[in-house]
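Interim report to the steering committee. The following record documents the input for Transglycosylase SLT domain-containing protein (265 residues).
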Amino acid sequence: MSNQIWRRTSAIAALAALACVAGRAEAAQCGNSAAGFESWKRSFAEEARGRASPASLDALATTSYSTATISADRGQKSFKLTLDQFLAKRGGPAIVSRGRALKRTNAALFDQIEERYGVPPGPLLAIWGMETGFGAVKGNINTLSAVATLAYDCRRSAFFTDQLYAALTLVDRGVLSTNTRGAAHGEIGHTQFLPKNVILYGTGGSLDSAPAALNATANFLKGHGWKRGAGYQPGEPNFAAIQGWNAASVYQRAIAQLGRQIDGQ
């Protein structure tokens, strides 16, 4: 084969490969309204065949575009408040009061968790109180629809596509179903775990069980570098693990402050 023919053939092959890649990229194209969601679902399911089971893709087919999820995703204004404003809005004093009571009545559980993961009760109770009011408000949005909507939505499509594949895995494991309901971004359980974090840090047992959720939360913090016995206030070694829980600075500082108060420091 002459160099000229070889170059022409290589160019044609490269263009074909690019066309194929472009076709795949366009197949499950993100969108910013409900209009393209059903088409996106079909395209995503086609791409996911072989990676996700038929049963989990059947579950995906039942999902609907969640306007409540998009509204919540666009409306997170509380993260722009000052720390004092944020704590007042989230009921900081009530979280501390209830957290101290739960620490006393569940001392054996928190001792076991600290022994295993090195995480004291304060930050766990602060997260539990902040996320769901200690299990009182875990959300009522269809979980699969929420995650699928955010995987389709252009704002954070790549991140939530990863979460969607994790959610489909959890369908196969019986952890999620088409009826599972939780928070607006697809979080579930007492401390609101996204699907991928359920897989990575769940310790067995439903996260609708407080002990299972608290163990999983401690496991998450340990997995993000928590060091036994070290401080967790801003500038201290374990604050980085709290930062791993939520990207909002005011949320991170709130958890650290509430945890310190619950631990009586």
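The chain has three domains: 1-29, 30-72+140-182, 78-139+186-262. The committee is asked to note this result when reviewing the revised timeline.
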